[in-house]
Amino acid sequence: MTDFTTDTPMVRDRTAPPKREYYAYFALIFAATLPLSLLTWALKAARRMELPEKGPIASAWSQARIITPHIFSA
Predict the structure, then answer these.
(1) Of 10, 16, 22, 73, which is most buried, counting CB atoms within 10 Å of its CB?
(2) In Å, what is the CA distance from 70 to each residue of 9, 35, 42, 53?
(3) Pick from 12, 14, 26, 18: nearest CA to 71
(4) pLDDT in tens, 13-61
């Protein structure tokens, strides 16, 4: 039988940040990285004379997916 009277489990009172706030930051970061990703994609395409595997939207999306959690973990 387990005795919880002497060693009670610690309950964390930590709440997750609201998802709306996360999505708002994600949208802002995505919008900010999209022009730079488009420029980078166009320069790579012009330099190699072929289209890169990853498009500008996919590149901006992945950058936003990397940057946004860093904001919330700080």
Answers:
(1) 22
(2) 30, 21, 28, 26
(3) 26
(4) 566 657 899 999 999 999 999 999 999 999 999 999 998 889 999 999 9
Token pair of 32 as six digits: 């900010």
Six-digit token pair at 62? 């992945």
Q: Which residue has the tokens 């387990």?
A: 2
- 9 compared with 45, residue with greater pLDDT: 45
CA distances from 46 to 10, 40, 55, 56, 60 (A): 58, 10, 14, 14, 19
Structure tokens at 4: 């919880």
Name the burial class of residue 44, with classes exposed (0-12), middle (13-18) and buried (19+) by CB atoms within 10 angstroms of its CB.
middle
Please state the domain extents for the chain: 19-73
**What does each C-alpha distance from 43 to 39, 57, 61, 66, 70 come to in angstroms?**
6, 15, 19, 23, 28
